[in-house]
Amino acid sequence: MNSPFFKFNYFGMDVSLILAFAIGIGFGFALERGGFGSAKILAAQFYFTNMRVLKVMFTAIVTAMLGVYFLSVFGFMDLSLIYIGNTYILPQVVGGLVLGIGFVVGGYCPGTSVVSVSTGKIDGLVYLAGVAAGIFVFGEMFPLIKNFYSSTDMGSLTLPQFFNMSYGFIVFLVVIMALGAFAAAEWGEKKMAAKKSEANS
Amino acid sequence: MTSLTKILTHAFEKHEGHVHIKTEAKPYSNPYLVGIGLGLVLLAAFVIMGRGLGASGAISTLVAAGVDKVAPSHAAGNEFYKEYIGDGTTNPLKDWLVFEVIGVLVGGFLSGTLAGRVKKGIEKGPRISSRKRLFYAFIGGGLMGWGAKLARGCTSGQALSGGALLNLGSWAFMMMVFAGGYAAAYFIRRQWI
Asked: What does pTM read for this prediction?
């Protein structure tokens, strides 16, 4: 069997939209289970009181990364057919920084705000309106920032290519890094909880 | 006796116009298990579609379609909008990410309902008014929307999907998201703690 299925024309455009809806249900379900419909839980990541964002995100990245790696190693998946966006390093660094500030100011990211709306959060709805406004402003000023937007194009570039190491070794490093981050997160949470109970007593 | 109290409180809640079922909200699931579940959903997207998940892209499509509706010639003259509107042969809303995000809405509601967590309200810390919180929500959303467009994706499209594919730009982006969040957290702490 060859995957990705869509690229091998196992089904057409209309079916892909139904699958998009189904995959979205799984995505939304998982985000809500994780507590990501709540801005308080998401924001707690940035005060070291609840590290769920880091734990869920890195576990998800590691799971999907290992899946992609082993499926391609065993020949079930053609990695070259998976869409990887080009790296535009400067705009992505600046965009990431602005987005990170927006994360802690607004309390959500776009995906989690959709979940917050589905579970009745008014601030999530206002946040989504803000996202739309931000995109509109970006669209209106696009002629002005187009040059910066398309600057520092490094093409399609992965970490193994950039560091000139094997794919498997980078996968291994990311797993080790994630395990280290989980240990640090658990330790930090305990530390913060102890500090809090000390302050209350 | 307890069931009687339950019925009574339930009746009062209905009287006040709440339609949701008021049971005790269940605690959130183990983050590592949720992460594995989310990772498998992402892997399914790779295997089935050959692409990752997303969120801000769907909102971009809605914004571009809205601009196109109100001012078609203005939208047609703007490269950014044009990319989302397409060549006019198909409806721009017939888009993979738009359908995926509708699914997110349904999936979130399903999970929230099963756990008794669907409840109208505003998420904020104890030291800030609701009005101020909504103001910050709008501003934060605006920064997020603007930043996501500059970075060519948000936490779903870049950090999660690009991260799992070991995309260099996605990893640089992810580090900067955490850097920006931690840098701004101190100044906005009254909102949350």
From this structure: 0.91
